[in-house]
Model the fold of this input.
Amino acid sequence: MKHQRKITALSEEAESRIIEMAWEDRTPFEAIHANYGFTEAEVIKFMRSSLKPSSFRLWRKRVTSKKTKHVKLRSPEVSRGYCSTQYKPRSK
Done:
C-alpha cells in the first residue's frame, strides 16, 4: 500500500509535525502535501491510524468545518498558514 510506505519512511519528528499541521486551523492540506507529499486522503488515513478513535472523530469534525484547510476555499485575507502569535520565541 502506497500510504503505508510513506508512514514507515517518516521520522518520529516528521510524524509529529504532520499531526501538528493537520490540527492547525490555518495550515491547509496543500501545505502538508507540499512538505510531506501526503494528499488530503492520505492525511486522513494517517490521522486515523495515529490518533485515538475519539481524538480522530474530534479532528474530523473540526477539519470539515474549516474553510482554511483548503487553499481554494480560503478567504484572500488569510495570507499565511499559521496564527501570528503561534510561533513566539521561547524564553530560556
